[in-house]
Amino acid sequence: MSSTPNRGMLRVFLLLGFVFALSFASITLMGRFQAGRGNTRLEDEYAQATQTSPGPEQKSPAKPSAEPGVSLQESQYLETFNQAVDLIEKTYVKEVEPKTLYYGAIQGMLYNLDPHSSFFPPDYFKDVKVELQGQFGGLGIEVGVKDGRLAIMSPIEDTPASRAGLKSGDIIFKIDGVITEGMSLTDAVHKMRGKPGTQVTLTIVREGWPEPKDFRLTREVIQINSVKKAELIDGKFGYIRLAVFNENTSRDLRQAVQTVLAKAGGKLSGLILDLRNNPGGQLEQALEVAETFISEGPIVSTKGRLNDSNKTFYAHKQKAHTDFPMVVIVNSGSASASEILAAALKDSGRALVLGTKTYGKGSVQSLYTLKDGSGIKVTTAYYYTPSGTSIQAEGITPDILVEDLSPEDMARLEGERRREEETRFREQNLPGYITQEEVQQKQQAKPADKKQEPPTFEELVLKDYQLRRSVEILKSWVIFQGQVKKAAANP
Q: Is 351:326 a contact under the CB 8 Å cutoff?
């Protein structure tokens, strides 16, 4: 009898265990079913949101998962980009090479950053590297984007562009009849480059002109020499024209300084450094040129997102030329590295800056080579003058503002001066005045007529108003210093 109750109790326990197991299984399956419904709804919403354009054999994209180092948001954008590429490849009216799509995407990406960031396909990138070395084929202009239009930053001296009269600020409306609106900077430069001896027509818009004008230019091998002139004025004032910053600039500049020093017998009473229409170039070269004239103190600082972009560059060469006053001439074509140099000389008190406001390019670009030989130029930092100010879109305001007068303006001023001389009452207007010859003990023989020679550099100085004013300032400085010495010697 004792065995019967035991068997009954065992059946009860087995039945209860089966019920509990069945309940647990039901709960678990229901939870998974509800979770499955939720996941399906989310995936459908994502697919609907991304399918903005119908396409053949289009499939709902899988839910994105971020790669290591890539945020979920970036992963979504990459998926959208890939979807766009896939749609174009399948639906565009004609077959498109993948290179065209991907290169175009990189170009557009950089174009939307700022006017100075750009992409260079392999052939274009070779041109960029050659240009940095100081020689290339083309017209001799530095171009950029101004208010969304292709503009001339600066014509390089003694090139087809400068000889044709193109100026900083000119808008290039067409290249060989093709409107430049919407054209990338890279494509525009490539269209203007070409085999020496071939021609290209630029349609130029200039402020004050009633309509655009065509300029037919012949391409040349542009051999860029940093130093265009190294001359002596009045036997004691040096003049150096620095046209561009390339790999040889600091070396060429030091040689030019030695040249004018030798002409002056080893001592200069002053130096004029002409940076007009200098479009800039390599930052390292601007620093080395600054150290030629500044022995200590900051030259420029850069600030960017990367730690390597946050730097202050100091002058540290003790053999700098600091024993003569300097005047630096600038204009609206002075940009980038030339602005860095002018600002350093101005802020340090080493030189007086004369001319008109500079271009205002206060950003630093870095070149990077990509795997297939193409390259990108991307803005990596902003630069700041020694006083801590940025010139971005502002430019450098000269210490002395002197407009660059055209030949017509110069002729008009000269005519006014002559008329003033003719109407001025002087000693020689008095009746019976004593002539200069009577005062001289011996009348010197008049020199024989000489064959007309081409104008000397000093004669050309008189026709360059900004340069003439620079010479006058240095002469005034020498006179003033002489007066101070006299006063100290005769208290």
A: yes
Report d(CA 161, CA 218) in Å as an integer: 9
Of residues 352, 365, 355, 440, the one with CA closest to residue 128: 365
pLDDT at 42: 25
Residue carrying structure tokens 């027509």:
201
**Pairing between strand 270-274 and 171-175?**
unpaired
Asked if 346 and 328 touch (Cβ cutoff 8 Å), the reply is yes
Q: What is the pLDDT of residue 128?
A: 80
Q: CA-CA distance, 90 to 55, in Å (whole number)?
A: 8
Q: Which helix (H) or strand (E) holds 259?
A: helix 249-263
Region class of 357: left (phi > 0), else alpha (psi between -120 and 50), else beta: beta
Euclidean distance between CA atoms 260 and 265, whole angstroms: 9
Catalytic residue numbers read: 336, 347, 361
Please give the biggest Cα pair distance in the chain: 171
Residue 447's pLDDT is 53
Q: Residue 230 corresponds to which tokens in the numbers above?
A: 């190294």
pLDDT score at 202: 97
Cα angle 470, 142, 291 (rounded to 5 degrees) comes to: 50
What are the residues facing 313 on neighbouring strands?
A: 300
Q: Is the CB of residue 214 less than 8 Å from the CB of residue 203? A: yes
Distances (CA, A) of 391 to 46, 376, 435: 46, 24, 58
Residue 218 contacts residue 132 (beta carbons within 8 Å): no
Q: Which residues of the chain fall below pLDDT 50?
A: 1-64, 445
Bridge partners for 400 per DSSP:
354
| This prediction's pTM | 0.70
The pLDDT of residue 69 = 66
Contact 384, 363 (CB under 8 A): no
